[in-house]
Structure formats: C-alpha cells, structure tokens
Amino acid sequence: MPKAKLLLLEDDTSLSETVCEFLVSKDYDVIPVYDGKEAEVAIYETRFDLLLLDVNVPVLNGFQLLSRLRLEGKTTPAIFLTSLNAIEDVEEGYGSGCDDYLRKPFALKELLFRIETLLKREFFHTPQARLRIDEHVEYDTATHQLYIDQKIVQLQNKEAKLLKLFLQKKNEIISHETLMEHLWDFEETGSDETLRTYIKNLRKIIGKERIVSLKKLGYKFTLA
Fold first, then answer.
1. pTM exceeding 0.85
2. How far is it, in rounded angstroms, from Cα 81 to Cα 142?
3. For 165-205, what is each residue's pLDDT tens digit?
4. Helix/strand/coil for 212
5. Which of 27, 70, 102, 194 lies at a C-alpha separation of 20 to 30 Å from 168?
6. Which CATH number fits the domain 5-125, given the four candidates 2.60.40.3500, 3.40.30.10, 3.30.710.10, 3.40.50.2300?
7. Is 1.10.1040.10 the CATH classification of the domain at 154-221?
8. Which stretches are labeled DNA-binding (predicted)?
9. DSSP string over 147-199
C-alpha cells in the first residue's frame, strides 16, 4: 500500500522539522511548506491525502487558504494546527472548511491519532468520481487530478485551474476575458502569451482536438 501523502504548512522551522520527522517515522510521506502561497501551489501540483495547516503564516493565512481551496472544490481533509484558541477562532476554522482543529502545543501522538482517524474516514467514504475524457484520459472531480492510463499527470497550478474551468463549462464558449479573470487574481498580472502557453500545454496532454479556438469569441472544450 502506498504511503499517505501529507502537506504540512508551518512557518516555525523547528516545529516543522519535529512534526515531519515524527510522521515520517510513522511511515507517512510529508511535504513541508512555509507560507500560504507555497502551500496553494503545492496542493494544485500534487495530490495530498491530508492537509496540516498552521493559521498565522506569511502571504496567505491558513483560514484564507482553506476557504479558497473549498471554493475551488478541493475536498482534501484538513486539520488546523494553531495557537489560536478562542472560540471565535475555532468557529472561523470550521467555517473555512476544516475537518479538525488541534490547538498548540499538542502531543505528537494526539496528532497521529487524529490523522489516522481522518484517513480511515476518507478511505471508507470517498466516492469514485472519475470523468472520462477519452479511453486513456480521466479527470477525478473529487481530487481534481488528471489521469492518463491510470497514472496521475502533474499539472502546474494554472493548468489545473484552466482544465477545471473547461470541464465545468464543457461544450460552452468561454471568452478570453473570463479565462484571464479566472487564472489571475488582482495580485497577479497575466498575459495573452502566457494563456496561450497554458492552453498549448493542455492540448499536448489531453489532445489538441479537445480545446477549440474560436476567433474573436474565445475557446470551447469539446466533450461528448
């Protein structure tokens, strides 16, 4: 059985190392990240079985990150590991979509128990939700992973967001403006050339015939 893959968002490097070493000793594959944006990129590029999230981290805090992921349809179970212990903080944590909330300081064994409980729950309750694109290509609508011949294909963050939008609006015309707004938020600057590059990359992966360019209108993802 493959190791469960966990993401650990923790900006305290000493605590991060301690938690990583402990979980690795328990046969988990742990990827440490140190700010919210780094975590977001990692989550879109890698399939994780569980997210361990600190709240007060640079760039994008844990509550903001998980809220954004849930709005994007990411259902990966998440545990907040935080020193915020007011009831209002707990309320905000669960409101943002967490599955568990563990206050610092915590015992490593307690963290392990909570991780094991969540992973067991996911094993027995995760639905099979594969969307068949063609005989070789499938998209998992629960985990937002792309599979080719049953193997996960890693997409860049923007490529994953683009594919998800195309599938949500399959066989519909999506304007150039809509694509630009979806891929780049107010803090980022996109370009026509970069958008074309992402579309070119997706065509190479899933077949150029799937994404049709419509002059002066936009693009359409064709799926029977």
1. no
2. 24
3. 898 888 999 999 999 988 886 567 778 899 999 999 999 99
4. strand
5. 194
6. 3.40.50.2300
7. no
8. 128-223
9. EETTEEE---HHHHHHHHHHHHTTTSEE-HHHHHHHH--TT----HHHHHHHH
